[in-house]
Design goal:
single chain; 221 residues; mainly alpha; 11 helices; 0% strand
Length: 221
């Protein structure tokens, strides 16, 4: 059971790493070459990466403390500091609600959803030979997000739009992460292929991945 827990955490770590790395890559293209495509995509990727990785850091650190049991709460182990340091991320880099509203502004004022939707669409094609089920999930989510973005941009000031900004931002971040893992898998990365399938089940289809993550823990780590 504990190995299954660690496997689930490994999936979250793989996704967070891919999302953060993509944001860093875009930032590098912006700073070095003033790449207009990177500028447009970074506008929405930056807040998405901050809010998603910040929340994952807190939940993961909390799980790690729990994994140690009572010893995890003892300051001498250094483990409690991990949780405190993680907690600052969604606060200092956020908060989550502030970043979600920034995502909403990017979608409605700067058409920032277009580059993200294009990446999702491309990922569907890349995923098809790897896993038809994963491709179908990405296609479904991409279609849902496309419809939602159209509705949001039609009336960005609506109370329901603002109230749903957090859920939309997290959904965008999780979908983008899945697309990035698929891109890595298309390069022949077996770890990324496995992480992509498990990530989609965990965050896009909301299925329990513990058993599968347990079986593939060694590959993920």
């Amino acid at each position: 059971m504990h190995r299954a827990t660690l496997g689930t955490l490994a999936v979250d770590a793989a996704g967070a790493f891919a999302l953060a790395g993509h944001a860093f890559a875009l930032l590098g293209r912006v700073e070095v070459g003033a790449d207009p495509e990177a500028v447009a995509e970074l506008r929405i990727v930056a807040p998405l990466a901050k809010l998603a990785t910040g929340r994952l850091a807190v939940s993961s650190a909390s799980e790690y403390v729990e994994s140690f049991g009572g010893a995890g709460y003892v300051e001498d182990t250094g483990v409690p500091r991990l949780l405190r340091d993680a907690q600052v991320l969604p606060i200092w880099e956020g908060t989550t609600n502030v970043l979600s509203l920034d995502v909403l502004r990017a979608l409605t004022r700067e058409d920032a959803g277009s580059p993200l939707l294009r990446r999702l669409s491309a990922a569907v094609d890349l995923a098809r030979p790897l896993s038809p089920a994963l491709a179908d999930t990405l296609a479904t989510v991409a279609g849902q997000l496309r419809d939602t973005i159209v509705a949001v941009t039609a009336d960005p000031g609506a109370a329901t739009v603002i109230a749903g900004a957090r859920a939309l931002a997290l959904r965008l971040a999780y979908a983008l992460t899945a697309a990035l893992l698929v891109e890595h898998a298309a390069w022949g990365d077996e770890q990324a292929e496995l992480a992509a399938r498990l990530w989609a089940r965990r965050w896009l289809r909301h299925e329990d991945i513990a058993e599968d993550a347990h079986h593939h823990l060694d590959l993920l780590c």
